[in-house]
Amino acid sequence: MKEFEDVGNQCLYSRKLALTCKNPNCGTKKDYLSSLTKQEDSVDVYQSRKCYLINRPNISQEILSLLESKRSIVKSLFQKERYREALSILNGCCFNYMMPRSHLDETQITPYNTEVMDKYSLNGYINASEIVLESNIYIATQIPCLKNLDVFTKLIKNSKTKTIVSLVSNTEHLKSFIKIFSEEKWLDGKLVFHIERYIIEGQGVRILRFENWADHSVISSRELEYFYYAAGVITEYPILVHCRAGIGRTGFFIMYDFLRKKGMVNIDTFLDILFKLRSKRSGTVWSKEQLSYLVSLFVIPEFSLEI
């Protein structure tokens, strides 16, 4: 998609940073640039990204500080309902920190670091980021890639994930797993989502798979509440959430799930949460439609309507 392609043009600075790494394993400029396109396996991609990050140990905190420096102008844009401009500022704070793209990445959106790979001892690359909001732990990922599906399954096993929320209808990656249960959930004559159970790496995993949630969009609050009514409130963490790139629908769902439990908030608390998400994964809550919908649902009206 053009929007994701445009991200690549804004990431050139972050890719150039890798060339300044003093670790001899990085190789020459020519070797490095060729490594961005060659068909490395997931272990090679993981190791090269570790090298890329050697001089950048506190990326999330850097990004959070940068986002905080923009709070006043972003808050003002929120109050004027100029969400597209606000998102542009947030994107400008985050895009330059993403790791170089590899052939294992579905879009130009990549993680800031290898935190998930390190924490869960994956020893291979996966496009995933962990987001912790109070006691809620979310693992946001792109759609599972068939080229490194073994790393995805290892993540599920090592993180002890029992629930996956899939926001895409594509099921190609699920063909490798053993399905033991499937039930369709309909509302007003429309298929909303599936409740499925699989055996993955010897453990039972529940997959809640939405059927008709279009990219960059939202679904109605009625459908969302029906989801919680039919599937039950998610209480076991971490939960793994993915769409295509792992930012738009994924970011919206994570923020909705958290705020649904927390309740209505003022605009500053809303920005606290959004900044936290963005400091952990670039582009979370991607579109104007997604952002404005969350504000309408959860921000105290007297603040959100201020001019």
Automatic annotation (TrEMBL):
Domain Tyrosine-protein phosphatase: 80-294
Matches recorded under InterPro entries: Prot-tyrosine_phosphatase-like, Protein-Tyr_Phosphatase, PTP_cat, Tyr_Pase_AS, Tyr_Pase_cat, Tyr_Pase_dom
Signal peptide segment: none
Top-level lineage group: Eukaryota
Alphabetized GO MF terms: protein tyrosine phosphatase activity
Pfam family, one: Y_phosphatase
TM region(s), chain numbering: none
Domain Tyrosine specific protein phosphatases: 238-292
SUPFAM superfamilies, A to Z: (Phosphotyrosine protein) phosphatases II (SSF52799)
Sequence similarity: Belongs to the protein-tyrosine phosphatase family. Non-receptor class subfamily.
Protein name, per record: Tyrosine-protein phosphatase non-receptor type 20
